[in-house]
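Input sequence (321 aa), recorded before submission:
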Amino acid sequence: MVPDPRLERLVAIDKPKKVCPAVVEIVDIAGLVRGASQGEGLGNQFLAHIRETQAILHVLRCFEDNNITHVEGGVDPVRDLQIIDTELQLRDAETIENRLVKSEKQAKSSNDRNLKQLVELLKSCRDFLLQGKNLRDMGLDADQELLLNDLQFLTLKPVLYVCNVEVAAIRNGNRHVDALRSYLPAGAMILPISAQMEAEIAELESKEEQALFLEDMGLTEPGVSQLIQAAYKLLGLETFYTTGADESRAWTFRKGMKAPQTAGIIHSDFERGFIRAEVIKFEDYSRLGSEAACREAGKLAVEGKDYLVADGDIMHFRFNV
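Predicted structure, token format:
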């Protein structure tokens, strides 16, 4: 469940019978070790799981504790990152080799321009991977990514690097986090989190106790909330709302979508028969306290098919099918 103060505010205003927060699914994929691309450990199984995800949250140990052993013998998050990157690169290179066998044969007996482009693109990707680089850093354009879409390359997926640090390093990091920042390319998303502290927060029974705990630590929100927000940013996701006496609901959409597309998230008929969208900004709804008050104050806008939905919009769709 996605923590959402805006949805809580809508619930306080409308007191709906039903509340539906947005949901993000995070799958714990453990067990990737050196040699995973060759089937070491449970490599094949775990790499297959990663292929089904939209993004990778790479958790890296960035704390010292002599009581907790490390499979590689010592704490070095840059080394750990390189090991996993290498395994993913090798698996992507293997995927390319398998596809090239088929695609090159088809290209020779076909005049399909896209097929010939795919072969050349796959060869470029293979060369890039064999240099020890990830495909996300190759600078592929939208058309090239579309050509590669069905291959679900592991190193093309966006990544958030989650640094598991000791409690004392949660605000300013430590030398391990600094080493990662120096190693990773500019713009890489890095989030320090203390798993120990998150476990302590989870044991507290009320939000009031959690808030006091965070205040004592000099923080405003749990790491889990920061993680979800960072994941949304990584995937270019935002939230719009529908609300009323029956239900208040948060809907996730991709940034840049227009009104008919977001209507389709609710139901395909909404997009197919889209007429218009009635839009209230969250700030106006929160301040004025009802849809009727927003209408009266002129804060309800009627938008057409070209309207770009904004994060926090409260939507009501008119459609006819």
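Checked by second reader. The two ends are 33 Å apart (CA to CA).
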